[in-house]
Amino acid sequence: MMEFLVELYQWNKALHIIGVISWMAALLYLPRLYVYHCDAEPGSQVSEMLKTMERRLLKVIMTPAMVFALIFGALLLLTSGMGGWGTFWLYLKLIFVTGLLLFHGFLARWRKEFEIDANRRPARFYRVANEIPTLLMIIIVILVVIKPS
Q1: DSSP 32
Q2: Other beta carbons less than 10 A from residue 39's beta carbon
Q3: 3-state secondary structure string, 46-113?
Q4: Do 72 and 16 touch, CB atoms closer than 8 A?
Q5: pLDDT by residue for the chain (149 residues), tens digit each?
Q6: Which of 23, 89, 105, 122 could serve as a FRET partner for 129 with CA atoms 20 to 30 Å apart?
Q7: From CA 104, how far away is CA 84, in angstroms rounded?
Q8: Which of 125, 136, 65 is nearest to 96 (CA)?
Q9: 18 near 68, Cβ under 8 Å?
């Protein structure tokens, strides 16, 4: 099994990166939709359209992309000799990835509030929240590329 993973390492890495890019795009776009949704009158045509967009983005793109990124990321971690379970940067990266997972969960919860017209947060809240995945992504990329000890 391990030899098979080693042979597919480059493919796993490419598929992991594709999953991460797709997930990040959705993590960055969904809070922006929430900003627009705050300005829409509940029950209006715009509000209902945004509900559809938010639901589809979360369920059809964001969550599958997250799963895709996690599966291929796990395969990379399982590839013997390719990673570094003994390296500090990897544990830091996993902590910040956990932050992205938590943010994903918050976005899902907030979508449910918009779905039932129960949002009580201002647009500014979502504008600020929109910066969280960017900061986490920057930290993760630096950790992966620099690999500090």
Answers
A1: H
A2: 10
A3: HHHHHHHHHHHHHHHHHHHHHHHHHHHHHHHHHCCCCCCCCCHHHHHHHHHHHHHHHHHHHHHHHHHH
A4: yes
A5: 667 777 888 999 999 999 999 999 999 999 999 999 999 999 999 999 999 999 999 999 999 999 999 999 999 988 866 556 778 899 999 999 999 999 999 999 999 999 999 999 999 999 999 999 999 999 999 999 999 98
A6: 89
A7: 26
A8: 136
A9: yes
Whose tokens are 């910066």? That residue is 131
Six token digits for residue 13:
């890495």
Tokens representing residue 140 in the block: 């993760």
C-beta neighbour count of 37 within 10 angstroms: 24
Q: What are the extents of the domains in the chain?
A: 2-146
CA distance 58 to 26: 8
